[in-house]
Write a structure and sequence with these properties.
The structure holds two protein chains of two kinds.
Chain A lengths: L1 H34 L19 H10 L4 H33 L5 H10 L5 H14 L6 H9 L2 H14 L2 H9 L4 H30 L2 H6 L8 H12 L5 H22 L16
Chain B lengths: L14 H27 L2 E5 L9 E5 L3 H7 L2 H32 L7 H9 L6 H12 L5 H8 L13 H26 L4 H8 L4 H12 L1 H16 L3 H6 L12 H11 L3 H30 L6
Antiparallel strand pairs in B: 1-2
Helix pairs in contact in B: 1-13, 2-13, 3-7, 3-10, 4-7, 5-7, 7-10, 10-13, 12-13
The chains are: A mainly alpha, B mainly alpha.
Chain lengths: 282, 308
């Protein structure tokens, strides 16, 4: 009896801070769940966590806003994040494989220059990227957001670590001895072994593009091409003069985090963040 | 480990370059060329002749270091830079301290509700900074804030966290909320990679859990801590989305509240891309100086295994 009590007391001392941390992190999410159910008139008058009954109305109103512009933003975000992350994982995988499995002139220089890219602040790139893309007439197109999103020095870094750890030299050598070309060796031998690492690269890039604000904010003018972040920001900005939009902003925020939270919970095992510190456990 | 892998005759010469080509081409066009272009623009300016009318009245000329001199003597930029530096000094230790604490607690053998707390604290990583700022921004509004509601019920004075004095902490709180869980998971994953036998021996020798944490776990976490610090530093110096999103809800955030906002302001509101370029080169230089040393250290460790 005494031992269990002692155990439970000890466990509370270490559990309570974590529970407080969890509650802090859940607070805004809980609030947006409640606030999305409030009508515009009760948003600023009823108690913070008192639910309303207008969720369905709010969703309907949001969907009707300028002929479903909100869902267009959702589709755009999915395109930017999904397409960008897929291409990024593919390019990073090829580059990482080359850097890990070949010895060639310029290898160290290429890697260091690519790695330096991790440290370049986004703003230093965003403005000249905008000016250069406007010279070739690509600003305010889907490509102006997609192309810069494909470049991921960090994805190449992760792919190199993963390829070095997950693809044995002997296997590559054996495929070559069997007469497979270099590309075929990569395509049908190395790449399948790298899939878990590539999914991790995909997820990191997906979240990075989904969260990005500065790049589409600079590149795009037509709100039909906006991703969710820029769309909701402009909606909030208009709310200063038309407070009825606040309900839409809040409902839109709630709906916009649902897909990403679902993706998180369903792909949890691929969040191999140990790759960050450079160690691979298999 | 295998040294004699390749027999000289079978040395692919083109293949590695072909694999790297797409990444290198895009990296060159979208990273290296823009950096060079920014550096070039930072040394140029527009000369207006006459009344500034007519086709050839505005010409771009070489300006030397004039834009840099202007940037470095600009009061707005300095106050923004100091603000961000202070912001980093408050946010980075708090975020990494809490992340380390949570990671160690998750790794403690007596902890309960491990799965629930780990997922809950990691959840904000799935919320874009713009959306996070929206949610917190509304929660800060005196008409919405649960804190203000309670204080009003008690008849106490109600603070407005979006006022000039405290808006700094209001922004830092959003950064903390968004980043603590990610760093916690990085550190926790690194902790799980430590062989448990190390602790067994220490326990037999009579070490407490606290001693195990401070003498074994934290020293072994050092590389992961350096890595998380570098990434947090880079992200912090670039703070942009949070204050920009809070602006419509608060009067106390100016259009050049952080250096990055000033760059945006210069480039797109004032149409002075030349001084914007100079300012962004300065920011990039400072970020590189602050973080490159750290990352080199980590990269040297990470690839030690591969050199065989």
């Amino acid at each position: 009896m005494t031992t269990t009590r002692k155990h439970s007391r000890g466990s509370w001392a270490v559990t309570v801070p974590l529970v407080l941390g969890a509650l802090y992190c859940l607070l805004p999410v809980a609030w947006v769940l409640v606030a999305a159910s409030k009508s515009g008139s009760t948003l600023f008058t009823s108690f913070t966590f008192a639910p309303g009954d207008a969720l369905a109305d709010n969703v309907a109103e949001l969907s009707a806003y300028r002929d479903g512009l909100y869902w267009r933003w959702m589709a755009n975000t999915a395109l930017y994040a999904g397409g960008g992350a897929l291409l990024s994982a593919l390019l990073s995988g090829m580059a990482g494989y080359a850097l890990a499995k070949y010895r060639f002139a310029g290898r160290a220089v290429i890697f260091n220059v690519l790695l330096g890219g991790v440290l370049v602040p986004a703003v230093v790139l965003a403005i000249p990227q905008y000016l250069l893309l406007s010279k070739v007439g690509l600003t305010d197109t889907y490509w102006s957001v997609l192309l810069p999103s494909i470049v991921s020095p960090y994805g190449i870094y992760l792919s190199r670590i993963y390829a070095a750890a997950a693809v044995p030299d002997e296997v590559v050598e054996a495929a070559r001895t069997d007469g497979a070309g270099e590309f075929r060796t990569f395509r049908s031998v190395a790449m399948p072994m790298m899939v878990p690492g590539l999914i991790t690269v995909f997820l990191f890039q997906f979240v990075a593009i989904w969260n990005n604000f500065l790049l589409p904010f600079i590149m795009l003018a037509d709100d039909g091409r906006f991703p969710m972040t820029v769309g909701l920001y402009t909606l909030l900005n208009q709310g200063a003069t038309a407070p009825a939009l606040y309900s839409l902003v809040i409902t839109g925020s709630l709906l916009s985090i649902v897909p990403l939270v679902a993706l998180f919970l369903s792909l949890q095992r691929y969040w191999r963040i140990d790759l960050l510190s450079g160690s691979v456990k298999s | 480990m295998t040294k004699a892998r390749r027999r000289g005759t079978h040395k692919p010469r083109i293949a590695p370059y072909a694999f790297l080509a797409p990444a290198i081409v895009l990296f060159t066009l979208l990273v290296l060329v823009p950096i060079g272009y920014a550096a070039y623009l930072s040394l140029r300016k527009v000369k207006v002749s006459g009344l500034g009318l007519g086709r050839n009245a505005r010409t771009e000329i070489f300006a030397g270091l004039e834009n840099y001199r202007e940037a470095l003597t600009d009061g707005d930029l300095w106050s923004g830079a100091l603000r961000v530096l202070g912001y980093g000094l408050v946010l980075i230790p708090t975020m990494l301290g809490l992340a380390l604490l949570f990671a160690l607690l998750l790794d403690h053998p007596k902890t309960r509700m491990r799965r629930f707390t780990r997922i809950s604290i990691f959840l904000p990583y799935a919320v874009p900074a713009v959306i996070a700022s929206l949610l917190w921004g509304f929660l800060y509004l005196p008409a919405v804030s649960p804190l203000n509601r309670i204080l009003a019920e008690l008849g106490l004075p109600e603070p407005n966290v979006l006022d000039t004095g405290s808006v700094f902490y209001a922004v830092a709180n959003i950064g903390l909320w968004g980043g603590v869980g990610f760093n916690m998971v990085v550190l926790f994953t690194a902790l799980r990679a430590i062989p448990p036998e190390l602790y067994e021996q220490a326990r037999i020798d009579g070490c407490s859990e606290w001693q195990i944490a401070t003498r074994i776990k934290i020293p072994l976490l050092f590389p992961a801590l350096i890595m998380t610090t570098v990434f947090t530093m880079i992200a912090t110096l670039q703070v942009f989305s949070e204050p920009v999103t809070l602006r419509p809800l608060s009067n106390s955030i100016s259009s050049s509240w952080t250096p990055l906002m000033k760059v945006y302001q210069d480039a797109f509101a004032r149409n002075d891309i030349y001084s914007a370029a100079a300012t962004s080169v300065v920011i990039a230089f400072l970020t590189l100086v602050l973080s490159f040393g750290f990352l080199r250290l980590v990269a040297a460790r990470a690839f030690a295994q591969e050199r065989s």
